[in-house]
């Protein structure tokens, strides 16, 4: 959940580190710090609060040096105050460490170190790593070996970068388990980069190598060597990533979230491109090879994910079951591995994850693999752990998503799942060529339909202004758009801190109806889909209890216009694609409420973009 960046080269390190941290601030933002080596001395600056506090501090008192490490923190051990911010150093300041993850055996290690006379300067688990490395360095081990020895003692998933004044020509980095990735960037002219995420280094290089769990690397100005934790050297595989830095910049938009909402037509085009042939209706995913035999043998798909990504699986279930007639079970990833799921080798575990690094999702994938299932993943971040662990994957192709609140990484996988459902149905002989062509044909209009919703942004803004002071909201949906209600409510609560519940509309009468009065707006997702009639009657029930109703409905729907107080209109689209279009006004609604309340839209409190702890 924390952001890490490291630099070694000929340029001044601090501006590069701070720029990298700015691009990673979405990962953690309760404190930040840098450590730089100059003339054999490590200087450290760490500040609680937003990155700009650290930047202002460094402007007053610059730190020279051409090798350094930086960190943005999302606190797990120890409150977010200066002394708990990273980097952490040993007492004589010859070793500095930045860390992402949790040292699970930190308490016994701390006790052991304290009994040896070590005095801790922070409340973090990270500090034990520094002292352990220090212990082995003091015993005469070179830095790489000392780090390896220290890592062998740690339990849990951890990623680190180490800087030492004793060996100033290198950075050591390592990855244990799935606590976020480590990417090594190969620059020009004797400079190298290390980061937890690509956006931190994309402005310098697109030539990168990813560390696998259980690997460490020695990074010098001239390159990197990668080793296992047992010390065996492994070949360095350098790949060129297709993203460029403009994709990770806000441009004219006030917030990344608004930019990313507006990027959806483009993102949908990109996720469709190269996968479908609208003339023939053929679909193929180059990274998810799928035979007729396997598709026909497939007994069940277990879909698993967290948060917004989990909501995509609810839509995926409807699509795959309706089209391909394969039973689908969806399970929140944090529950998956404890549920003793019934899985065998004729089943697929399909994980959805923007980051591809979410600890719970990766653990669910491990569970699926362990039980013999084929692993599929729908992921966005290139080179992520989920992408590499899966037997086959579909990349979302939406570019970097920076805002903590996920938007384009919600709608793109809905389309990926739509295409996957058609492909499976086709391979199982459940579609005529004409039906297939028709279903695929709709995709070419989808970006345009989303554009039409975005063109009504002003209207959403007006309604958001009207309701921005509400304290609660109930989002209702049914069938394929139940997930739209869940996702709309999640968007509102995570960025505006307004309590919002997403509920299956048919369940309202079994409890939540008691909440309804004029202070409980109901946001009803009522597009033209097979559940329309049922939804209308629920909207009428809510209205008759005095609740204001905001509906998401299909243009020309006079019945809803009569009963609802406000309507976010969407164009008429085939019902299986309604979730892609109907969520867009709800994303804008949540965005404008949070923005008008003056909240930190892109970095809401207590959250982080990739949740790499359990
Ligand atoms: C979405 O707005 C949230 N930030 C969150 O629910 C997110 O979708 C979830 O943590 C899963 O992340 P992933 O897609 O990277 O696995």
What is the second-level CATH architecture of the largest domain? 4-Layer Sandwich
Distance between the termini: 11 Å
Question: How many strands, what sense, and barrel or not for the largest sheet?
Answer: 8 strands, antiparallel
| Helix/strand structural class | alpha/beta
Order of neighbouring strands in the sheet with most strands:
3-2-4-1-10-9-11-15
Considering the protein shown, what is the CATH homologous superfamily of the largest domain?
Answer: Aminohydrolase, N-terminal nucleophile (Ntn) domain
Could you please describe the fold and organization of this structure?
It is a single chain. The chain is α/β, with parallel strands linked by helices and 614 residues long. The protein folds into three domains: 3-251, Glutamine Phosphoribosylpyrophosphate, subunit 1, domain 1; 261-447, Rossmann fold (3-Layer(aba) Sandwich); 456-596, Rossmann fold. The protein contains 20 helices and 27 strands. The strands form five sheets. The chain has an eight-stranded antiparallel beta sheet with strand order 3-2-4-1-10-9-11-15, covered by helices on one side. A hairpin with a 4-residue loop joins β13 and β14. α7 (264-272) packs parallel to α13 (408-427), α7 runs antiparallel to α15 (446-454) and α17 packs parallel to α20. The longest helix is centred in the C-terminal third of the chain and has 20 residues, at 408-427. It is globular and about 80 Å long. The termini are close together. The structure holds 2-deoxy-2-amino glucitol-6-phosphate. 2-deoxy-2-amino glucitol-6-phosphate is lined by residues 306-309, 353-355, 358, 361, 404-406, 494, 610-611.
């Amino acid at each position: 959940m924390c952001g890490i960046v490291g630099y070694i080269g000929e340029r001044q390190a601090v501006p590069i580190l701070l720029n990298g941290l700015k691009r990673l601030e979405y990962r953690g933002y309760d404190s930040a710090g840098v450590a730089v080596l100059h003339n054999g001395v490590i200087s450290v600056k760490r500040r609680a609060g937003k990155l700009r506090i650290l930047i202002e501090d460094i402007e007053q008192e610059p730190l020279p040096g051409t090798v350094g490490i930086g960190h943005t923190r999302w606190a797990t051990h120890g409150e977010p105050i200066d002394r708990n911010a990273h980097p952490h150093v040993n007492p004589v300041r010859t070793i500095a460490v930045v860390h992402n993850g949790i040292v699970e055996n930190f308490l016994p290690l701390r006790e052991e170190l304290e009994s040896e006379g070590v005095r801790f300067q922070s409340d973090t688990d990270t500090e034990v790593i520094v002292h352990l490395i220090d212990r082995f360095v003091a015993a005469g081990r070179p830095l790489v070996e000392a780090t390896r020895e220290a890592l062998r003692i740690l339990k849990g998933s951890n990623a680190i970068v180490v800087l030492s004044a004793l060996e100033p020509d290198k950075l050591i980095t390592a990855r244990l388990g799935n606590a976020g990735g480590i990417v090594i960037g190969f620059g020009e002219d004797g400079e190298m980069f290390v980061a937890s995420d690509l956006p931190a280094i994309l402005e310098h290089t697109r030539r990168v190598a990813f560390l696998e769990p259980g690997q460490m690397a020695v990074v010098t100005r001239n390159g990197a060597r990668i080793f296992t934790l047992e010390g065996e050297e492994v070949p360095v595989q350098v790949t060129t990533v297709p993203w460029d830095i403009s994709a990770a910049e806000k441009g004219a938009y006030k917030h990344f979230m608004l930019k990313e909402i507006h990027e959806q037509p483009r993102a949908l085009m990109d996720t469709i491109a190269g996968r479908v042939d609208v003339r023939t209706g053929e679909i193929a995913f180059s990274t998810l090879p799928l035979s007729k035999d396997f598709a026909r043998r497939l007994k069940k798909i277990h879909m698993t994910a967290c948060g917004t990504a989990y909501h995509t699986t609810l839509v995926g279930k409807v699509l795959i079951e309706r089209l391909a007639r394969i039973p689908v079970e969806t399970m929140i990833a944090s529950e998956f591995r404890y549920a003793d799921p019934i899985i065998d080798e004729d089943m697929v575990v399909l994980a959805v994850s923007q980051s591809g690094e979410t600890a719970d999702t990766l653990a669910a994938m491990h569970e699926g693999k362990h039980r013999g299932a084929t692993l599929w993943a729908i992921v966005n971040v290139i080179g992520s752990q989920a992408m590499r662990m899966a037997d086959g994957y579909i990349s979302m192709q939406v570019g970097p998503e920076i805002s903590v609140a996920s938007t384009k990484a919600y709608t793109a996988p809905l389309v990926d799942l739509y295409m996957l459902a058609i492909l499976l149905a086709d391979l199982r002989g459940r579609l005529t060529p004409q039906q297939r062509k028709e279903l695929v044909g709709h995709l070419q209009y989808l970006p345009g339909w989303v554009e039409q919703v975005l063109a009504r942004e002003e209207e959403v803004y007006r309604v958001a202004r009207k309701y921005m002071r509400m304290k609660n909201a109930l989002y209702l949906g049914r069938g394929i758009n139940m997930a739209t209600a869940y996702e709309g409510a999640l968007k509102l609560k995570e960025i505006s801190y307004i309590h919002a519940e997403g509920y299956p509309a048919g369940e309202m009468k079994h409890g939540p109806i008691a909440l309804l009065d004029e202070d409980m707006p109901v946001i009803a997702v009522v597009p033209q889909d097979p559940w329309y009639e049922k939804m209308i009657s629920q909207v009428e029930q809510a209205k008759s209890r005095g609740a204001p109703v905001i509906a998401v409905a299909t243009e020309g729907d006079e019945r809803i216009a009569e009963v609802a107080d406000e309507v976010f209109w969407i164009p008429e689209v085939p019902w299986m694609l309604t979730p892609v279009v109907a969520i867009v006004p709800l994303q804008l609604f949540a965005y404008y409420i949070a923005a008008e309340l003056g909240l930190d839209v892109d970095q809401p409190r207590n959250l982080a973009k990739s949740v790499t702890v359990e």
